[in-house]
Amino acid sequence: MSFTVAIVGRPNVGKSPLFNRLVGRRVALVHDQPGVTRDRREGEARLGDLDFTVIDTAGFEQAGAETLPGRMRAQTETAIEQADAVFVVMDARAGVLPDDRAFASLVRKSGKPAVLVVNKMEGRAGESGRLEAYSLGLGEPIPLSAEHNEGLPDLYDALREALPEKTAEAIERADDDGPHPIRVAIVGRPNAGKSTLINRLIGEERLLTSPEAGTTRDSIAVDLEWHGHHFRLHDTAGLRRRSRIDEKIEKLSVGETLNAVRFAEVVVVLLDVDNAFEEQDQKIADLIESEGRAVVIGINKWDLKDRNPGDISKLREKAREKLMQLPDVPLVAVSALTGEGLDRLMQAIIDAHAVWNRRIPTSALNRWFEDATSAHPPPAVSGRRLRLNYITQVTSRPPTFVVFCTRADAVPDAYKRYLVNSLREAFELPGTPIRLMLREKANPYEGKARRKH
Ligand code: GDP
């Protein structure tokens, strides 16, 4: 176990939604051992590349209200004691209440590193609450919407800052365990050479002739190490077998492709150099785009080509024209048969995976946003200017951004495309699907008397 974070705060500020975000689908353990109260949950959390234990102190909220203060305090103190760092959660919309001050003071007294999380910040309706939160003396409040899955990248940065050594150790240790393999699927039309490529990568031709292996139609995963990098390959036994006994299904199997795409982080679309970028290839590209996976195009059977300078640029040009949904997608020429180009293919997979996982710091993002929106201001719609206020990256895999603005519905698609293209270029995010959403910002000052903080 690397380190432990306790989530504390008064009831209903959103501790459990934060806990659930961090733990995801991993099973949360409710401890039921002597000395460990049932009023709290522990889970294995994942935040970016950090794995740690998280303790949620929310359980006792079901206890009778009159008993709350004493139990709450005892629970919180125990949790803080066991933790290496504390997330102190408050509700931005409610502002700072006396109980928030009590929790903040408990945490300050403990001397444990703390991150002050102001939750329910979707649409920034809680901006004044966030400003108030500075008065808790726990440093910069980190805006979050656990419900809408916004702000986790900033929480990650804050945690690394609050707990620099333990988080660095945890990342190193994870690297020592061997990094998580990159999940890869190879898709494409029949005869593109998928089976040949998979066999070449696995390097286990003998699997084909073994009656036990490769005889089921189930798809399986094969782990693969390539020059020290780890990959997990989606390998349909049927695919391998088909090439052997030559019972080709001439139609693209959409269901199988979809399964493979869903399995993968990076999808290699394998195309036969002689008939690349046809309608079915565009369908595959659409599917990958809508599933939000990273993509690499492999142009196969390169050994059959007379090579001329400029061939690759021509293919890239064609990709740009035919696969408009995936701009600047990485493209590598390979021969599954001879093994030529496979090093470049694997490197392209690693690079595409990194782009897909990228998190852009909020400050750099907003510097770009100001430049991009002042170079090309959004158009006026029905005579009124649209105001775009700021942008935040809500998640990666694929990179996903929210722009807060007035009249989200009125922003034309062409303008959204302009922003996405500019973002792609500014932060070098080639090929990967990018999600950009618009959300209306509730201005906390609108229609209200200005408040002093
Ligand atoms: P799949 O349907 O996509 O799995 O395609 P296969 O792997 O079965 O390949 C279809 C045909 O193309 C087979 O006859 C392969 O031997 C051939 N093939 C696959 N890759 C290459 C390659 O890189 N070069 C050449 N010359 N032939 C290839």
Annotation keywords:
453 residues, alpha/beta, six-stranded mixed β-sheet, 15 helices, 18 strands, binds guanosine-5'-diphosphate
Describe this structure in words.
The protein is 37% helix and 22% strand. By secondary structure, the chain is an alpha/beta fold. Helix 15 (413-426) links the parallel strand 17 (400-405) and strand 18. Residues 28-38, 60-68, 205-219, 241-246 and 443-453 have low confidence and may be disordered. Guanosine-5'-diphosphate (GDP) is lined by residues 188, 190-196, 239, 243, 300-301, 303-304, 335-337. Guanosine-5'-diphosphate is lined by residues 188, 190-196, 239, 243, 300-301, 303-304, 335-337.
The biggest beta sheet is recorded as: 7 strands, mixed
Percent of residues in helices: 25-40%
- Helix count equals 15
Overall structural class, as computed from helix and strand content, comes to alpha/beta
Number of strands: 18
What distance lies between the first and last C-alpha atoms, to the nearest angstrom?
41 Å
